[in-house]
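Is this the right way to post structure tokens for a design question? Let me know if I should format differently. Anyway, here goes:
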């Protein structure tokens, strides 16, 4: 099964790119604390995205995004590295700007795996 590629030119949305790290720690009675990464991919990245375009184009992108809340796709978000990402569930929003143009906002989250 081939991994699909996000092929539209979108920009960063409102808000900041979020980096959250998961670590394991053990606190000892004498105040010493041991800290370690929780696996090799311990940093999660969430990127708010925005796309403005024609109604037809935005609807095509919306359908792509709705199909990728569980299934990963390849994208190079602005300011980040190319990789596998998934759409954060319930983050897709469509705003009608005029009779011909719409704005689509969504958030993607880094998914780790192998892609060719």
């Amino acid at each position: 099964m081939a991994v699909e590629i996000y092929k539209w030119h979108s920009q960063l949305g409102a808000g900041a790119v979020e980096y959250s790290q998961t670590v394991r720690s053990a606190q000892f009675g004498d105040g010493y604390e041991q800290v370690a990464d929780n696996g090799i991919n311990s940093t999660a990245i969430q990127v708010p995205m925005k796309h403005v375009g024609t109604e037809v184009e935005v609807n095509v992108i919306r359908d792509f995004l709705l199909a990728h809340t569980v299934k990963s796709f390849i994208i190079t978000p602005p300011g980040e590295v190319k990789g596998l990402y998934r759409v954060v569930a319930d983050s897709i929003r469509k705003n009608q700007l005029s009779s011909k143009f719409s704005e689509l906002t969504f958030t993607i989250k880094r998914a780790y795996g192998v892609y060719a």
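Format looks fine. Someone answered above. Worth noting: The chain has one helix and nine strands. The helical segments are 55-66.
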